[in-house]
């Protein structure tokens, strides 16, 4: 199993962990950093995760280029087999957590591609009503 850290502004990280726990019962497999909810410097938590994580490991951040992402990137840049994923969503964290294949850069990119946000489009109501009418005639 891949070691996972989710680091975010506010309670986004712990919210993802809560959702994952509800959906999978595996919330205890994820470490989180909720940055800026108090005056605590969270940099030591990033360092501790990197130092103790089994490799390969993944650190998820919320905003690309945001302050949390910047601190993670600075700490992880020289590390081998620590992947940083930004613009995180619930789908990608669950995909990595539940995946049984050995994590590689290529496989991680496949998981990311499968977990992209997408626009859910509703059919036009007029067309939809016409189709329903045709169906019942």
Description:
This protein is α/β, with parallel strands linked by helices. 47% of the residues lie in helices and 16% in strands. The chain has helices at residues 12-24, 43-52, 67-76, 90-98, 105-114, 125-136, and strands at residues 3-9, 30-35, 57-61, 82-85. Strands 2-1-3-4 form a 4-stranded parallel sheet, sandwiched between helices. Strand 3, helix 3 and strand 4 (82-85) form a beta-alpha-beta unit. Helix 2 (43-52) runs parallel beside helix 3 (67-76). The longest helix has 13 residues, at 12-24. The protein is globular and about 70 Å long. The termini are far apart. 26% of the residues are buried.
**Biggest sheet character:** 4 strands, parallel
Question: Given the C-alpha coordinates, what overall shape results?
Answer: globular
Widest beta sheet: strand line-up? 2-1-3-4
Give the topology string: H per helix, E per strand: EHEHEHEHHH
> How far is the first residue's CA from the last residue's CA?
55 Å
Estimated radius of gyration: 19 Å
Low-confidence stretches: none
Annotation, overall tally of beta strands: 4
Tell me, rounded to a whole number, the average pLDDT.
93
Strand share of the residues? 15-25%
**What proportion of the residues is helical, as a percent range?**
40-55%
Please, how many helices?
Answer: 6
From the helix content, strand content and strand pairing, which structural class follows? alpha/beta
């Amino acid at each position: 199993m891949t070691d996972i850290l989710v680091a975010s502004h506010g309670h986004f990280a712990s919210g993802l962990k809560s959702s994952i726990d509800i959906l999978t019962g595996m919330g205890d497999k994820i470490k989180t950093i909720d940055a800026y909810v108090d005056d605590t410097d969270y940099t030591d938590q990033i360092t501790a995760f990197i130092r103790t994580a089994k490799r390969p490991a993944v650190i998820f951040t919320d905003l690309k280029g945001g302050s949390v992402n910047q601190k993670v990137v600075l700490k992880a840049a020289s590390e081998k087999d620590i992947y940083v994923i930004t613009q995180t969503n619930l789908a990608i964290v669950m995909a990595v957590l539940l995946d049984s294949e050995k994590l590689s850069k290529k496989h991680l990119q496949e998981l990311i591609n499968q977990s992209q946000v997408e626009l859910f489009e509703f059919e036009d109501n007029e067309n939809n009503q016409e189709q329903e009418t045709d169906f019942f005639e």
